[in-house]
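--- STAGE predict ---
source: upstream dedup step, 1 unique chain passed
mode: sequence only
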Amino acid sequence: MNKSQKIIAPALEKMEALTSLLGNWHEKGTGIQGQLDVTDAEKKVQERFPVLLIASLSQTRLAEVFAAKANHEKLLVIAGKISSGIRKKLRAFHVNYLDTAGNMYLKTGKLFLLVEGQKDYPFFAKEKRQLFTKTGIRLIFHLLHTPEAEGRPYRELAEELDISLGSVGQLMKQLYKEGFLLKQGKKGWRLHQRKALLERWIPAYTDQLKPGLLLGRYRFAREEKWQELPLPPGIQWGGEPAAYLMTKYLRPEAWTVYTDLRRRQFFESPSVGSRQARGCVGFQRFWPNFPEAEEPPPNSPCVVGIRRPDRKRGCQEL
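--- STAGE serialize ---
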């Protein structure tokens, strides 16, 4: 079974189980990957949808979806998984969707169907358990953003990330199984398909790890000229401020910082004022401490924290 069938087969099975509709899939080559003919047993409903297939629909892929929608009015996105937040955005722009859990939105002149709240994702069940755990998310980030880290001894990686040696071995083995690590003889491992791995990492980080890192909302001690604020050791910009400082593209609308300080130390910092201010959020840092003389890793969490597609596009050079 190829990759498209691993998504299409369970998605259509769920659609047929939850509704009276039947789906007939026709695969194409490049561009829009195929088309889906949807009908009911009595042939009262007959609709044809051009289909865009995506393994996991994250914020980074929304621009691609909306571009396809501009050329295909009845576009249907079929994905292994679509989060509730992304589904809401798709409905706002009248983009049809279907995922492998059975969540769906189909709206044409003759058809309207909405199914929500389905959480059984067969396409991701094994993957989430083995690779995208909280520990796996931290390790993958370290591999993506630390040059040649994949070639280091497992014990060294375990010490840097403060995780068990066994966890490193299991996760590296799973990365190899899924095609993200290549063996290079005596040179050891080489990270492969970095972009694809990052696109799968982002929704896992956003849904599983990031919520537990939240320290709270804050306001600046001095709100004017935020760029000149002297951030103390242990605090660094993330989200839109980091992207702006690195690219000078699009002034931030939300201010995110990452810190290795404890909650009380963070809110007692001279650059941070009272809590509960809108648009200013502090998170616990989840990557190893880098020497002060070094720059934070390229593609740092700044891009991960950016939600709007127009702002995300401005940070592609990162």
